[in-house]
Amino acid sequence: MAQLEEVTVDLYKHLVSERALTGETMLLNMGPQHPSTHGVLRLLLELDGEVVVNCIPDVGFLHTGIEKNMEAKTYQKAEVMTDRLDYMNTMGNNLAYVMAVEKLVDLDVPPRAQALRVILVELQRIASHLVWLGTSGLDLAAMSMFLYCFREREQILDIFELVSGQRMMTTYIRPGGVWRDVPVEFEKAVRDFIKIFPKRIDEYERLLTKNPLFIDRMVDIGYLSKETALSYGVTGPTLRASGVDWDLRKTRPYMGYEQYDFDVPVLTEGDTYARYLVRIEELRQTLRIVEQALNKLPMGPVRSDNRKYVPPPRSEIGLSMEALIHHFKLWTEGFLAPNASVYSAVESPRGELGVLLEGDGGPKPRRVHMRTPSFDNLAVLPELVKGHLVADLVAILASIDIVLGDIDR
Amino acid sequence: MEKSLEPILKNLQDKFGATLEEFRGEAQCIVKAEQIVGALKTLRDAHHFELLSAQTAVDYFPQTAPRFHVIYQLTSISKNLSVQLRVPVSAGNPKVPTAANVYKTAVWRERELIDMFGIEFEGHPDPRRILMPEGTEGHPLRKDFPLGYEEPQFTFNFEEIDLRKPYAKE
Q1: Minimal Cβ distance to B130: which of A60, A233, A246
Q2: How many C-beta atoms surround the C-beta of residue B34 within 10 A?
């Protein structure tokens, strides 16, 4: 992050073309307060007329030191920080972190908890893609998309409130299972959503997919080749729109994804329109997973009964001395994790969300690194926008779907 | 650990003198700083590790040799394999050759490490801070950088906390 009052061309001399130094091209700030940068992102643009010659992203305005904070908390308490990373994907962040903890201490997860996690994470994926669809519609002046998408997203957030008491900062997925079982109204709420949503996707598509104005703005804009994408570590729908079939849910199934039948949409065009089509198809496929997981939802406990890591239920505490001791130990000192490091990754709506977790033998992690997909996806932006108009930059930025909380951490 | 990973690790051990550790089925190879670029190139070109999934560091303060580990998490998409490389870095001379010429991902990831850990990457094309403002003093993810409040010391951990407390010692 550069301090704005100090910005001179000297700082960026090695990044701009020689024409900027003579004043032939213009350097222009876009952001950090700009409605089309999807958060507090600053782009320093070198412009030749209206054509982008160079683009230098400047991030860090939302840096909150989450990784540092997590080092000072016990494993359970550090989890609340993960909600604040990518605020469009709170359930997914919880899952990524919790899976790393479970791998580090070798903890089992009951099948019902696994299925509930899948349902909620996939609903979160839909909610995240809806925000992307709404805001990228808004960037291209399709105002009504934003209103439609937020209507459906609201329904998902209501489901989250039902299960966790919170609409966004859920912390529902816990090491060894989930916080508590879902209430009886849960099934009906999800079924209502499954019933209504396919028609809604058709509605969005009717408004956008064949719309000539929309196609003019999207097709052949911001081409990303397969090689560039891989070299920059781009993952998720952005990578799949460039022709790489890589989805961690298929290639390295976790939480029982192997039992669900779904397709991974892959396109080879690599332009902004392809990224749009991939995400729209993901909405449909994700809904298929939710439906199958709900149909198969097994009965049983929602938390592991390994009392060394998972607190006992409240009802046991009054009856069992041992349960009381476990409860006390887990909520004061926390549990001890081995002096070792694990890396575990999940497929977030934006790509590979990895967690590198290193314990030091005590109750607090030595290092938690969140490998957030938006960070690497944004790094490729300068390659995509060169030679395009500023107006196209807005469409390209929307199509790689970044969240600044995810980048700055 | 995956069977198909074994010849790759064998190659790393023979060619680059890597030492191998395994935990929960994950392979972690410790490689010397001078050899990291060669090892990354071999993995990318000969063994199809197309993706540098993550690059980060860990601080082992108060230990000084090595004080840091720079971690490279590599993924092979065509073979569906993962391997982790670790480069020990000493406190006195925190320098590692840059991986930016092998994987473009490293350009931003190394800027983050420069910013957060103060590790120097030799030959990096754009060694500016990335998250903290220009002119910030210190490197926030180092263990001796205070979190923002004073840690209380008790008799049982007085020494331990005293070591990392940020006040001046003679």
Answers
A1: A60
A2: 11
CATH architecture of A66-304+336-408: Orthogonal Bundle (1.10)
CA distances from A310 to A75, A357, B130 (A): 11, 19, 38
Contacting residues for A328 by C-beta, under 8 A, at least 6 apart: none
Task: For residue A285, give how far its alpha carbon lies from the nearest alpha carbon of chain B (Å).
Answer: 22
Using an 8 Å Cβ cutoff, are A267 and A243 in contact? Answer: yes
pLDDT single digits (tens) A369-389: 999 999 999 999 998 998 899
Report the CATH number at residue B113. 3.30.460.80
Q: What is the distance between the alpha carbons of residues B154 and B157, in angstroms, rounded to a whole number?
A: 5
Question: Is residue B120 situated within a structural domain?
Answer: yes
Looking from the CA of A11 toward its CB, the CA atoms found within 13 Å total 18
Q: How far is CA A64 from CA A61, A350, A354, in A?
A: 9, 21, 19
Q: Which of residues 149-178 of A touch B (CB under 8 A)?
A: none
The answer as to whether B147 is a domain residue is no
Report CB contact under 8 Å: B133, A246: no
Q: Does residue B127 form part of some domain?
A: yes
Number of domains in chain B: 1
pLDDT at A115 over 90: yes
Q: What percentage of chain A has pLDDT greater than the value 90? A: 49
A 324-343 residues inside an 8 A Cβ radius of B? 340-343
Quick: pLDDT tens for A20-68: 777 788 888 887 887 777 778 888 888 888 899 989 898 888 888 899 9
Closest CA to A47 of A1, A9, A7, A16: A16
